[in-house]
Amino acid sequence: MRVSAGPLTSYEIVYDIASVTAHHDCPDIPFSIRRNFLKTFDNPPPGALIERYLGYLDDKPVGYLELNFPQLDNLDIVELDLLVLPEHRRHGVGRALYDLAVERAEVHHRKHLQASTVDRHPDGTAFAESVGAKQGLVDLRSRLDVTALDESLLAGLRAEADKRSTGYTLRSWVGVPPDDLIDGVAYLEGRMNADAPTGDLVLEPEKMDAERIRQGDLTRERRGRRNYQTGALIGDRLAAWTSVVAELDQPAHAWQSTTIVDPEHRGHRLGLLVKLENLSLVRREKPALEAIDTFNAAANAFMLKVNRAMGFRMVDSWIDWQKDL
Ligand SMILES: CC(C)(COP(=O)(O)OP(=O)(O)OC[C@H]1O[C@@H](n2cnc3c(N)ncnc32)[C@H](O)[C@@H]1OP(=O)(O)O)[C@@H](O)C(=O)NCCC(=O)NCCS
């Protein structure tokens, strides 16, 4: 069989490869519906330069490579998504696509390739080790079963958080943040790579501003997704912020995304407070919601403790790899 890699010829093929691979690797994570997935191609997040390639066995496309070259910060890295259909693995398609990734990284003067694998199957880890990548960070995926929430436990947590956070007020919104809060959101989101553990990954804080946040939410909407958010304010200043993102066509599932408390406001249970309030918002907006998934660095003891208290339970473990070129 002849192995080769070449440019993308059809968005539909990518969906066929990515959906089958995702279902094989993590069957409990609902995969994007085709219509929304296809919208991602023309609506990248701001600051992302994306290249896409297919891997072939003879003339059959069986693998997919997506490379994201960040344009606004992290100019030394390239993020890589590399997938081969389960029944066509171990024929060298992954390696052919990887070699192309290295070639493209060199063209863009990138020094580090970064990618993630899940621990449910040996393939990803074995492949990453075979190309000499190093483990940069371990992430845990945890799930909140929204159909079995312990309401009295949540009420108790809320009462405790309220007690510890007097003087702060809560605001919730959907999509682009209100004008008076958007700079605060950009400031907090921009802190993430500095404040959350990044292990041995070469990652610098993202350069965020109001316009990048606005465009991020607008392109997310165009991809069929919605961002549910809650902030805690002291006066008119945002001190903590959390975000849950969900595909509109997936009524049962959502992703808990960023939660961050400004360093000078830590110790007031604001992380827990905004998460609890935002959970109420998401449950109102998505009444058929059954599960919320989230990723946390295994070393992020504080966030894991908050999540565990709310009822999140660990599902699987992921490794973020880095290959230095
Ligand atoms: C990782 C993945 C892309 C590899 O695709 P592939 O076409 O099977 O890869 P290759 O056939 O080119 O394998 C190259 C080498 O990786 C190693 N390898 C890959 N899978 C392996 C496995 N299950 N067990 C042991 N070694 C493995 C071997 O050294 C292999 O060389 P060999 O077959 O000559 O021994 C594929 O398994 C996949 O799509 N996994 C899910 C997504 C993922 O984890 N992507 C990786 C991001 S880094």
Automatic annotation (TrEMBL):
Q: Which Gene3D superfamilies match?
A: 3.40.630.30
Enumerate the UniProt keywords alphabetically.
Acyltransferase, Transferase
Q: Which GO terms describe its molecular function?
A: acyltransferase activity, transferring groups other than amino-acyl groups
Please tell me whether the keyword Acyltransferase is annotated for this protein.
yes
Which domain of life does the UniProt lineage start with? Bacteria
A family per Pfam: Acetyltransf_1
Every N-acetyltransferase domain range: 1-156
The molecule here is called: GNAT superfamily N-acetyltransferase
Q: Can you name the source organism?
A: Paractinoplanes abujensis
